Amino acid sequence: MEIFKQKQGDSLLISVEGELDASSSIDMDKAIEATINEGIYKLLINCEKLSYISSAGVGVFVSYVEDIKNKNGKIVFYKMQANVLSVLQILGLDKILSIAETEEEAKLILNEG
Amino acid sequence: MLNKDTFRQSYFLYLLMGLISFFIISADFLLKLSPLSSIQIGLPDFWISIFLVWFFIGHFLYLTEFFEGKEIYNIEFLLRTVFITGVVAVAAYFGLEYLPWLLLILKEGFENVDEQAIQTINPVFRHSIQLLHLYFFVVYYLIALVLFKKLIYVKKTKQEIILWNIFKGLLLAAPIFGFTNFRIPEYIIYGYLSISFTLILFLSVRIKWIAVLNMSEKWKIIVLLVFINCVSVVLAVKQWQMIQDNLLNLEIIRNVFLIIVVGMVNLYGVVALLGLIFNLPIAAVMEERSEQINSFQEINQIIQGKFKSEKVFEKLFNIGFSNTKAEVGWIEILNEGEEGDIYSNIDIDYSVVDGFNQALIEYAPAMANYNYIHIMNLKKEPKFDLVRSNFRSMLYFPITANKKLIGRYYLLKTYKNGFDTYMIRLVKTFIDQTSLAIENSELLERSFETERVKEELAIAKSVQKRLLPQSIPNNAIFDISCYSESAQDVGGDFYDYNSSDDKRFSLIIGDVSGKGTTAAFHMAEMKGIFEALIQLNLTSGDFLIRANNAVNKCLESNAFITLSYFQIYSKSRKITYSRAGHCPILYFNAKKEEFKYLDDDGIALGIIKDDSFKDHVQVNEIKFAAGDCMILYTDGIIENRHVRKNDNKSDEIEEYGYERLLKCALKHKAGSPEKMSRAILDDLEKFVFKNEDKKVKSKKTKNVESERRIALFDDITLVVLKFK
Q1: Domain B468-723, CATH homologous superfamily name and number
Q2: Which of B281, B294, B307, B462 is the most buried (most CB within 10 A)?
Q3: Phi-psi region of B602 (alpha: psi -120 to 50; beta: other; left: phi over 0)
Q4: Per-residue pLDDT for B702 more than 50?
Q5: B 703-722 residues with CB below 8 A of A?
Q6: How many structural domains are present in chain A?
């Protein structure tokens, strides 16, 4: 798995490529933690090239949802592949995570407040 | 009856015979000398010869038998016996020689005693002393001969036995030349003697016993042999003089027996001494070699036992130090982060060690690549000016294990060119051996550790297996089959079952996020919680809410649990269930003959920490009919994957997926839960291995039931339930 970070104003765009499983979730965890430590609570996650997500991978996002919500921040996912979306849906996470179709839509959701 | 005692008696007879013969000869001799000698008394010469033979041979046989019975393996002890006998003989010899003088001095006073005065002593007394001299002489030489025979026989072969027996034959036949009545021509005697001495020469070189001695024993024995040879020579010369005086009227040349004995003892003594002396330099080298071999073994033994690195380094230091004859040396053991221990022959200060290390780094910046560094003259190396003091030659070895530097070994001498190639090679060999041994022991330790972890995991696995119900009994309402396997030794899948009466059944299937040990711990934790909750007969909705609260308290923020909880009512033939983010239930409607994933909402436990969780709880109800079937599973089945290896591109991954599961279930819908379960697992296995890995597949499918081994990507659990 590879993570690409790109700062856009007060938000950060993270592009994930490959598989987000137990071992790579550690890298993901570090990336998000670093962002939060910088005081950035608005995260855009580009899942276009995320081919697989395991429960541990999901766990990373889940663990920050509460934190970020408390800081009036947000995590928005977009361009999610069907199988990844299906995993989140089954877990019921589509109800509490923000998932958008396109980047524009995602930015809109992010800035809704 | 020939027992030990009779045997002893018989060889005492030899001694008796010898002694009696000696007394007869002595008596006869003294009688002839006495003032009464004008009267012709005494034995004829023939009989004197006979008794002389008996005197010699009796003693010889007795001593042979006497020492034959004693097993003497200690060569030093053997030679000491000869030596002590010799000392006693010499002491007695000289003591007796000067006894007349002493007696005279006591009688007449010191100033009155001179050569002439001695002549006034009773000739019988004087000659008795000479007879005793002869006796001591003979006994000493015979004892030496018999004991030397034992030396010849060390590591004996047939050859030695034959040679000795011929020699013994010649010796026993020798007294024949002493008979005075029929004088054998002298040339025959010379011939006989030359044959005997040739044989003696052959016997003298039988000194194999030298090989079994160690260095210090050799030195002791050299000293002993020098004394023995002196004693032999002194006694022989003395006796020779006495016979020259012709007091005993013995004709030297006709005493072939004595000549052979004296020749044998002296020659063997000299040859053995020379052999030992010439052997010494070789022995020193051999000794060194065998010491080195021992050192190797010791190092190995130290390491093979409970490995203590200090001991190994200490040993290594001692071996290298003594073998190079270095004057000062040390081994610095490197412990990560700390100041290392130092083994040295002197009380060395760490600053000196450090000084050498620094100088060496400057001298050879690429020192890590060297097996050793040898400086023949430190004076010519300015880098060492500060530290070298009066040392001139230096040898440095790095000690490594698993490519890591674990020690530094220095050896120093105060003169130039102190170390030669041989020494360097030797120490290097020791160091290599030590490194290898340390590496091996570390390897062993690690494999022990792995083995221990494996064992513990196996225990954990069996403990965890017991957390799952061993079997769920079929009952009046449904038949059921359960299968669960972990990707690693332990896993996070679980299922459980409870039935308070035969009217209501509770069933739970769940999956803790992650896999392996962490998941297993959480699973065990959850098992306790669910066990408690399941007893409360809660509705499925309440169950989830309570479970979520419990999970929030127990789990880390990034862990969550998915589960489905069912209550099956036998009377009203309905199922109520709630799903908390778990894989959708695959339900078979017998009437419609179709499988369907049930579409309902629910969120995994441990994600929503506040009360809003209850908004996401949905209680669903299904009326079941006979033949309906419910398939419960964990995502390990859906997500199990087939990996197609691509040489240049990244691997192509395909998941088993919902579609395949549904198709397979439909195909086998008529079967019992057991059969359906097996069909699904077979299908999954077939999918994972495809056609690529036929070998593995055929091997695995042979024993499907007892040891199904799908290349597990995640823990898998499958529960198939069929209503009656």
Answers
A1: PPM-type phosphatase domain (3.60.40.10)
A2: B307
A3: left
A4: no
A5: 714
A6: 1
